[in-house]
Amino acid sequence: MPLYDLTGDPFAGIIVTKEKDLKNELTVKTRSIRELEDIFIYGFAFDAPKHYILLGGSGVGKSTALYHLKRYIQDNAPKDSYITHVHRGGSFTVPRDLKAVFGEKDPKDKGQRLLMARYDWTNWQDALKQLAGGKQIYLFWDFPDKIAQGQELKATLQGMEELIRQDGVHVFIAMNKNNYDVMLKASNLPGKFRKVELKRFDAGETHELLYKRLSYYRAPESSYKDVEPFNDVVGALRDAGGGVPRTILTTADLVLKGAHERGIRELRGQDVKEILHNAEYRRRIIEDRVDDRNKADTLYMLVEIIRDEFGGHIKKQRELIEYMREQHGWSNVTTIKRLKILQDYGLIEPRTADDFWTKTYTLI
Known about the structure:
With 364 residues, the chain is α/β, with parallel strands linked by helices. The protein is 47% helix and 11% strand. The strands form two sheets. Strands 2-3-4-1-5 form a five-stranded parallel β-sheet. Strands 6-8-7 form a three-stranded antiparallel β-sheet.
């Protein structure tokens, strides 16, 4: 029996987010998403669901969950509702981005400009009421990990504050925790949304993720019904990836290629450790997430310092902060911010010490 049965180039890996857009397919329906579906299916008759923020670290599946909820609402909401496209960007300002809901997707299109010109957008609240005609409007905003700053952020918060006061408007936002904290400091807007935190994957969800992602590459006649070649190492892959779906897939990809290079027919937990150690998988995970090479190198330098200077375990956050300030000139805020990024990527695990005050970190 071969180690795996994949179509095409088996060593292209099971990471397909860059080669094939899978945002529109929710690979694993987690408990949080199922609970939201249950709320919505019974709530549409009472003008539910109102406003939600999908919250989680980088790579945990926020965007995919948002796309899934949009499709779910399209299938179950009243048929005359306005379901918008998923807006991606650092700001959502009105009336600029509101116009696209009703047809002005291309400002250069003369016909669309004339349609929008019929309404007085200086008083966009009245224009919204006229266009909506009492129908429900569902807006989706995928807020990028790189937060907008300054006037752009201020304009977004002001516009969104006013927008959610309008009757029949429902807003769904996907964002990471850092952005949420920044918005919370600048406005009370986040407090007006129901917060749904997307948790990291457990072993069962990891199993389902690997099985479904492998299925994209299996030959139709394949008799395999499980997660070959990962049957005996699902837990090890989950732990190595810190429960973050995107990191789990990067890790599984490296292990698959490493097993082939070594002629390994059956993977064991020890094989996973050895392959990942030699493949510098932490660097690969960072480079998959960060486009700027200098920023990627900076984050990996921090990983190396934690590994080499602290033995993979930081007993006190303060010790690392002082080391980075003395050796590299980093401010306290800079060190803490970059630790949070590594945490979001599933590369370090934070814990609170026995004194309930000291923060510790362990390299995963």
